[in-house]
């Protein structure tokens, strides 16, 4: 899967973003501001293509400070910087193609992220269910061990006629506790 980071080139700015290495792309998670950045860069690329008239920008140096303005300088040193008339058609088309490709990649990344979040939610639900089952098993074991102790106490305090029967009940309670706790 290609990296989600973009490399936009325009006449005004040679490079706006630099893509990281492929291994960093695999670890990178899409940021919440990414769709807004993509929209902004697409709009910016589109605005260069609709500029019909080159606008002059005046660079004024007044008291050692540089000021940029659309109007000529009232005082101080004046120089004019011309903006490009328009972005070449081939560059505009390539920017549009990159924007489309980036939209597809963004949709792909968001879809993958949604799948990963669903898998994490399922894993968390499964872990909670297993924890609940373990707690229930522990509770059943404690209850069986308590019944075993009670039956052993009853066998010790039983009169001689009932002693044999009480010992059998204690033995069964012990076996039942071993079965429940061993699972």
Give structural notes.
The chain is mostly helical and 183 residues long. The chain has 2 domains: 1-15 and 33-47 and 88-183, no CATH class; 55-86, no CATH class. 62% of the residues lie in helices and 10% in strands. The protein contains 4 helices and 3 strands. The chain has helices spanning 22-27, 34-49, 89-157, 160-182; strands at 56-62, 65-69, 77-82. The two termini are 46 Å apart. Mean pLDDT is 77; it is low at 1-18 and 49-53.
Topology overview:
Blueprint: H1 22-27, H2 34-49, E1 56-62, E2 65-69, E3 77-82, H3 89-157, H4 160-182
Antiparallel strand pairs: 1-2, 1-3
Helix pairs in contact: 2-3, 3-4
Order of helices and strands: HHEEEHH
Percent of residues in β-strands: 5-15%
**Uncertain residue ranges:** 1-18, 49-53
Number of strands: 3
In helices, the fraction of residues equals: 55-70%
Question: What is the rounded distance between the termini?
Answer: 46 Å
Radius of gyration in whole Å, from Cα?
Answer: 38 Å
Q: Describe the largest sheet.
A: 3 strands, antiparallel
The rough form would be described as rod-shaped
Number of domains: 2
């Amino acid at each position: 899967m290609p990296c989600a980071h973009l490399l936009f080139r325009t006449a005004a700015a040679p490079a706006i973003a630099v893509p990281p290495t492929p291994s960093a792309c695999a670890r990178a998670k899409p940021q919440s501001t990414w769709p807004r950045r993509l929209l902004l860069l697409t709009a910016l690329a589109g605005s260069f293509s609709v500029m019909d008239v080159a606008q002059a920008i005046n660079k004024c140096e007044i008291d050692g400070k540089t000021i940029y303005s659309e109007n000529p300088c009232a005082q101080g040193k004046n120089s004019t910087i011309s903006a490009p008339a328009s972005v070449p058609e081939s560059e505009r088309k390539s920017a549009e193609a990159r924007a489309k490709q980036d939209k597809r990649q963004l949709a792909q990344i968001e879809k993958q992220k949604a799948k990963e979040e669903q898998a994490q939610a399922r894993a968390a639900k499964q872990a909670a269910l297993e924890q609940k089952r373990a707690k229930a098993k522990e509770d059943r074991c404690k209850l069986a061990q308590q019944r075993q102790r009670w039956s052993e106490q009853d066998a010790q305090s039983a009169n001689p006629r009932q002693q044999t029967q009480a010992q059998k009940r204690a033995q069964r309670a012990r076996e039942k506790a071993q079965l429940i706790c061993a699972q």
